[in-house]
Amino acid sequence: MTSAPRQTVRRCGWAQGDPLFEGYHDAVWGRPVHDDRVLFEYLVLSGAQAGLSWSTILRKQDAYRAAFDGFDPARVARYREAKVRALLADAGIVRNTQKIRSAIRNARATVTVQAEFGSLDAYLWRFVGGRPLVNRWRTGAETPASSAVSDALSEDLKRRGFSFVGTTICYAFMQTVGLVNDHLRSCHRCPARTPRGKGT
Fold first, then answer.
1. Is the separation of the CB atoms in 147 and 180 below 8 Å?
2. HSE value, Cβ hemisphere, 13 Å, CA-based, for 4
3. How far is residue 159's CA from residue 70's CA, in Å, rounded to a whole number?
4. Is 188:10 a contact under the CB 8 Å cutoff?
5. Over the stretch 154-186, which tens digit does the pLDDT of each residue have?
6. Which residues are 133's β-sheet partners?
7. How large is the greatest C-alpha to C-alpha distance in the chain, in angstroms?
8. Could you give the CA distance from residue 25 to residue 19 in angstroms, rounded to a whole number?
9. Is the pLDDT score of 197 beyond 70?
10. Is residue 22 part of a domain?
């Protein structure tokens, strides 16, 4: 008796065939996040990626969580020079002084945002009207590296004291935490409902 052929899961092209990316694509990318710690985590990791591959950051994600106290913004905001030195000696993370200091600066800015808006979640989701912008592109080539919304988010974050938050970094962050859903039409994770994005 022959077994039935294995069903191939259709994913966005960038995720197909790599177990690390497949897991990230299926469980994380494009899923709406409303947890401040997770939002802060991916904001830091998106900035840490600058000049590096995303796979490098994903492989270091557990080490980052351990090094940055589970990405609790209030705790990271209290880091001082001794902690900076300890982080620079941690081989599990990207040992870049500017990026490490940026994470701490961004934690302090996050605490200020939380005080003003009630949560980082409430602040960020204002930029998309409270629900994901769904694009449903046909090909990966259509997917932009930035958008008018990521431009606005980047500008506002910088004004509030955040760093490593250029528009391209912001757009990648938005894709990760589900502010924008860029799963291709052929992907099993593509929403079935009518898109409200297209060039967001």
1. yes
2. 3
3. 26
4. yes
5. 999 999 999 999 999 999 999 999 999 999 999
6. 180
7. 66
8. 10
9. no
10. no
Query: Residue 37 maps to which CATH number?
Result: 1.10.340.30
| Structure tokens given for 106 | 């961004």
pLDDT of residue 198: 56
Q: Which residue's entry shows tokens 């039935």?
A: 4
pLDDT tens digits for range 83-141 = 999 999 999 999 999 999 999 999 999 999 999 999 999 999 999 999 999 998 999 99
In a domain, 197, yes or no: no
Number of domains observed in the structure of the chain: 1
- Note whether residue 56 is domain-resident: yes
- Tokens at residue 145, please? 């590296």
Residue 33, pLDDT > 50, answer: yes
What range defines the domain where residue 176 resides?
31-181
Q: Identify whether 6 is part of a domain.
A: no
Q: How many angstroms separate the first and last alpha carbons of the chain?
A: 51
CA-to-CA dists, residue 20 to 66, 91, 118, angstroms = 20, 20, 34
Q: Within a 10 A sphere around the Cβ of 112, how many other Cβ atoms?
A: 14
Token digits of residue 64: 């980052």
Q: Could you tell me the pLDDT band of residue 69, with boundaries at 50, 70 and 90? A: very high
Rounded to an integer, the average pLDDT of 17-30 is: 96
Cα 56 to the center of its chain, rounded Å: 14
Q: Which of 36, 8, 51, 38 is nearest to 27 (CA)?
A: 38
Q: Assess contact for 48 and 94: CB atoms under 8 A.
A: yes
pLDDT at 181: 97
